[in-house]
């Protein structure tokens, strides 16, 4: 099966949620990205359309994302995406765009960060199974068939939750103590029911 990979630059719209599933730990967060364009009429930048998706981080991304990504943080996420449809408890059909992240990082054009190696934190660096300190299971061809998309225990978004963007000013500081550059407020469009 072919997968469509995307790179999305935006702001984290909620506090990342870390949970255990039968397939392993996962950290999920909503990512909002709003197009910007220059208006000759107003002589200023304007917001265009917005894209919101759920980013699921598995395996080696779990610890880094859980420790380094906060609500409002400007991030760059890369991975395969899909549109998942589900039915709410009230019988309404909904759909959500999801990314199974291969890589997530802070957007250093919009914030400052301090690098802390896993070895300095007491963790391990690299991949013990392959002996390659830089290898990941995905680089060795494993992990893509694990079915992380449909992992039992993964939960649907709660339609009552406000998936909207960062309600704060986006100036949440990363855990390193280095303040982030304030992020633009992103807004999620209202859901239209068919």
From TrEMBL:
Instruction: Please list which residues make up the signal peptide.
Output: none
Q: Name one Pfam family in it.
A: SSB
Nucleus found in the keyword field: no
- In which residue ranges is the amino acid composition biased (Basic and acidic residues)? 139-163, 184-194
The record's region (Disordered) falls at: 117-194
InterPro entries hit by this protein: NA-bd_OB-fold, Primosome_PriB/ssb
Domain of life according to the entry: Bacteria
Name the Gene Ontology molecular function terms of this record: single-stranded DNA binding
Asked if the keyword DNA-binding belongs to this entry, the reply reads yes
For this UniProt record, give its keywords in alphabetical order, as a comma-separated list. Answer: DNA-binding
Q: Know the name of this protein? A: Single-stranded DNA-binding protein
Q: Which organism is it from?
A: Tomitella fengzijianii
